[in-house]
């Protein structure tokens, strides 16, 4: 078996393990017909965005969110490293309204990030969605807060999900997102973040402004999880 520790950036093609057997494929096909996938079928939205590690925002990754509404104030998302059929499931994000965020304890607020800049700058978008529909949906997202954990540090070369989950943050100002990462996505999807930014000038963030405890990494201190024997 190939090494699974840190190294050159691991690709999906080199995840350790044998190719799927015919028996496995047959069982999958049967299960897809006979079993209920109600929670998964509630996913209705694909958002492409970028995340940085809460303790080291220089480490940045592309993140494809597949989201479903729990209700009008909360949606939950599974995150993949791409929108390919063999994409790696790398994390989860919970997105809540300003009203729910304001009800959180102050220590909890420090684990959440705002979405206003992400949306208004154009770097968060809905691949393939018509512009009018995208604009209406993201105008809501601009007012929300998110809490994100990634389980698979593929950017450091991990071929499997290793170590504790990592708290992730989003970007809040121009110049923070790596140009190469942004341009690669723009070219791949045929979009212009600058053009989207102009068309989103009318959007507003949280009604009370972004809370001072959100995006806590901006204060020069970042939170991150560790494994501790109890």
From TrEMBL:
<comment type="similarity">
    <text>Belongs to the OBAP family.</text>
</comment>
<dbReference type="GO" id="GO:0019915">
    <property type="term" value="P:lipid storage"/>
</dbReference>
<dbReference type="InterPro" id="IPR010686">
    <property type="entry name" value="OBAP-like"/>
</dbReference>
<dbReference type="Pfam" id="PF06884">
    <property type="entry name" value="DUF1264"/>
</dbReference>
<protein>
    <recommendedName>
        <fullName>DUF1264 domain-containing protein</fullName>
    </recommendedName>
</protein>
<dbReference type="GO" id="GO:0005811">
    <property type="term" value="C:lipid droplet"/>
</dbReference>
């Amino acid at each position: 078996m190939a090494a699974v520790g840190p190294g050159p950036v691991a690709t999906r093609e080199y995840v350790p393990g044998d190719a799927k057997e015919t028996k496995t494929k047959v069982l999958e096909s049967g299960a897809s017909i006979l079993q209920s996938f109600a929670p998964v079928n509630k996913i209705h939205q694909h958002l492409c965005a970028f995340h940085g590690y809460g303790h080291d925002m220089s480490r940045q990754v592309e993140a494809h969110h597949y989201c479903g509404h729990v209700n009008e104030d909360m949606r939950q998302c599974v995150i993949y490293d791409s929108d390919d059929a063999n994409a790696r499931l790398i994390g989860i994000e919970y997105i809540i309204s300003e009203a729910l965020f304001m009800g959180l304890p102050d220590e909890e607020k420090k684990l959440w990030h705002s979405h206003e800049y992400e949306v208004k700058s154009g770097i968060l978008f809905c691949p393939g969605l018509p512009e009018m529909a995208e604009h209406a949906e993201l105008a809501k997202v601009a007012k929300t807060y998110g809490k994100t954990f990634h389980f698979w540090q593929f950017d450091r070369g991990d071929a499997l999900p290793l170590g504790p989950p990592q708290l992730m943050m989003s970007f809040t100002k121009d110049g923070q997102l790596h140009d190469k990462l942004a341009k690669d996505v723009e070219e791949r999807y045929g979009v212009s973040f600058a053009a989207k930014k102009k068309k989103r000038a009318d959007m507003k963030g949280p009604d009370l402004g972004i809370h001072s405890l959100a995006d806590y990494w901006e204060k020069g201190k970042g939170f991150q999880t560790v494994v501790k024997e109890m």
